[in-house]
Amino acid sequence: MARLDNKTLLELMSQEFGGDVKSIDEAFGLLAVETAKEKIIEVLEFLKTHKDLQFIYLTDITAVHYPSQSLSIAVVYHLHSLKHNVRIRVKVFLDGGKPEIPSATVLWNGANWMERETYDFFGVIFTGHPDLRRILNVDDMEVFPMRKEYPLEDPNRVDKKDFFFGR
Amino acid sequence: MSEFKPVVKPNHPIFEDNDPQDELVTLNLGPTHPATHGVFQNVLQVDGERIVSGVSTIGYIHRAFEKIAEHRPYYQITPLTDRLNYCSSPINNMGWHMTVEKLLGIEIPKRVQYMRVIIMELARIADHIICNGILGVDTGAFSGFLYVMQEREFIYEIFEEICGARLTTNIGRIGGFERDFNEVAFQKIKEFIKRYPPVLAEFEDLFNRNRIFIERTAGVASVSPETALSYSWSGPILRATGVDYDVRANEPYSSYEEFDFDIPVGENGDVYDRYMVRNEEMRQSLRIIAQALEKIEKEPKGIFHADVPAFYLPPKEQVYNNMEALIYHFKIVMGEIDTPKTEVYHAVEGGNGELGFYLISDGGRSPYRLHFRRPSFINYQMYAPMSSGMLLSDAIINMSSLNVIAGELDA
């Protein structure tokens, strides 16, 4: 089989999932698709086990916080097909008040710590995760620090505010 | 924003279960222990000398780099990347510069790309020297470590010649280097590729066929390729299991596709194979450096950065005497220059594996979100599960051969 291109990849996925998977971006040749949290494990399993795709390598799981959106937490998966040497990015947008998503540990053992890290920093609950505890921060921390509402520095400090620099 | 109450999970049961009547002993290996190189804690349940189960606690030197990065302009994030894998900081620096250049669409001159290759390969050798040297120390052979450590000092002298720093280098800038390599630097690089092979051969003479070393390492912590891939391993430890995944070959950056080098792979995925893979990678790195030096000779002299005045700071004397330079200097420092609103993932082959930068830009002066895919963090998660059933002394050697760097683990 020739080198897998993004068009074929997207066609294969829409044949399987129809409108549940939609392409959102193709910046720098890396196809990004969006799906729903109910479908995510099916999508990941399809990508991993399909004989022409074989995205067997889970590169990374992380999250992004967009406070202005109604679905404010995006969980981002990066997969890599070592057979075709192609990457794909899968995104799922979740409700920031109650971010829950099924755990990918059923497919990859390596998802364990990546999901713990995402939980630790964004509060995403990965249902079915065997050991969802904080990993880098202290256990009794009460906030999820990578969310945008938690400022880096003392918010009372004004000398670094943008308006002093005309921004 | 709806109110969201986090769930504070109780500690893992292994921390509470320390019944004196029990046959098993709970043993804290770390956080500071001479046999763990860095701040790692593993709470192990041991039956005599055999480990029954274990839990890793990490995060002792977590410094919130991803949060800090959201508040810093792009060029000020380079010093943060230094402190990820501090045994090979230049690779992290270059990886970050290349990520931003990919985002901004900056074309880098060939000469600069080759200079970067030299720096990255020197850093890889320095990283592997540490790992294999310390592996020797942990198996009880101290002298090999001293032989090769001298050469790492020499690599650091080269870095010092180029950028003034040795460990946390902050080397290069977005768009190229801060200055050209001087003559002394080129001489030292040439001297290094001459003087290092015999030292490496001497080091290998001490270990490769050494019966004690083989008995301590061969067959220890053997990992199958399937398990390694399922745990998302990358780098020399993945290649030791027989998977030929190397970012330099799979997704060449900085003109790696023009270089002729081999990717060594192992068979058993044990500690001995990891050691052998790293040694061979050092040889391949020397080959790459030699080729890069040849290629640099053919390029026009004196080019050390791309011609991108909007992103590359002008020399200071021009800032005082030249209007355009002053404007660009002001715009760069004050973050007035627009960046594309997009997402980019860029990976480089770090000392320990695939070091990825996932950067989301909202058009501003600092990233909207920056995530580091840190190989040490992902490689290390298999450590506690794979230690079960292992002898304590083997688990120590296993940890040295994984080459987990605390800075990269905790970010």
UniProtKB/TrEMBL annotation, chain A:
Membrane topology: Peripheral membrane protein
Domain of life of the organism encoding this protein: Bacteria
Catalytic activity: a quinone + NADH + 5 H(+)(in) = a quinol + NAD(+) + 4 H(+)(out)
EC number: 7.1.1.-
Any one GO molecular function term: NADH dehydrogenase (quinone) (non-electrogenic) activity
Localisation per UniProt entry: Cell membrane
All copies of domain NADH:ubiquinone oxidoreductase 30kDa subunit, residue ranges: 34-154
One Pfam family it belongs to: Complex1_30kDa
Cellular-component GO terms for this entry: plasma membrane
Quaternary data: NDH-1 is composed of 14 different subunits. Subunits NuoB, C, D, E, F, and G constitute the peripheral sector of the complex.
NCBIfam families: NuoC_fam (TIGR01961)
Function in brief: NDH-1 shuttles electrons from NADH, via FMN and iron-sulfur (Fe-S) centers, to quinones in the respiratory chain. The immediate electron acceptor for the enzyme in this species is believed to be a menaquinone. Couples the redox reaction to proton translocation (for every two electrons transferred, four hydrogen ions are translocated across the cytoplasmic membrane), and thus conserves the redox energy in a proton gradient.
Protein name: NADH-quinone oxidoreductase subunit C
Lineage: Bacteria, Pseudomonadati, Bacteroidota, Sphingobacteriia, Sphingobacteriales
Automatic annotation (TrEMBL), chain B:
Keyword Zinc appears in the UniProt entry: no
Alphabetical list of PROSITE patterns matching this protein: COMPLEX1_49K (PS00535)
EC category name: translocase
Topology within the bilayer: Peripheral membrane protein
Gene3D superfamilies, sorted: Cytochrome-c3 Hydrogenase, chain B
UniProt-recorded Gene Ontology molecular function terms: NAD binding; NADH dehydrogenase (quinone) (non-electrogenic) activity; quinone binding
Domain NADH-quinone oxidoreductase subunit D: 138-410
GO CC field: plasma membrane
Catalytic reaction list: a quinone + NADH + 5 H(+)(in) = a quinol + NAD(+) + 4 H(+)(out)
Keywords from the named record: Cell membrane, Membrane, NAD, Quinone, Translocase, Transport
Location within or outside the cell: Cell membrane
Known EC number: 7.1.1.-
Subunit structure: NDH-1 is composed of 14 different subunits. Subunits NuoB, C, D, E, F, and G constitute the peripheral sector of the complex.
Listed NCBIfam families: PRK06075.1 (NF004739)
PANTHER family hit by this protein: NADH DEHYDROGENASE [UBIQUINONE] IRON-SULFUR PROTEIN 2, MITOCHONDRIAL (PTHR11993:SF10), NADH-UBIQUINONE OXIDOREDUCTASE 49 KDA SUBUNIT (PTHR11993)
Purpose: NDH-1 shuttles electrons from NADH, via FMN and iron-sulfur (Fe-S) centers, to quinones in the respiratory chain. The immediate electron acceptor for the enzyme in this species is believed to be a menaquinone. Couples the redox reaction to proton translocation (for every two electrons transferred, four hydrogen ions are translocated across the cytoplasmic membrane), and thus conserves the redox energy in a proton gradient. NDH-1 shuttles electrons from NADH, via FMN and iron-sulfur (Fe-S) centers, to quinones in the respiratory chain. The immediate electron acceptor for the enzyme in this species is believed to be ubiquinone. Couples the redox reaction to proton translocation (for every two electrons transferred, four hydrogen ions are translocated across the cytoplasmic membrane), and thus conserves the redox energy in a proton gradient.
Family: Belongs to the complex I 49 kDa subunit family.
Name of the protein this chain belongs to: NADH-quinone oxidoreductase subunit D
Organism: Olivibacter domesticus
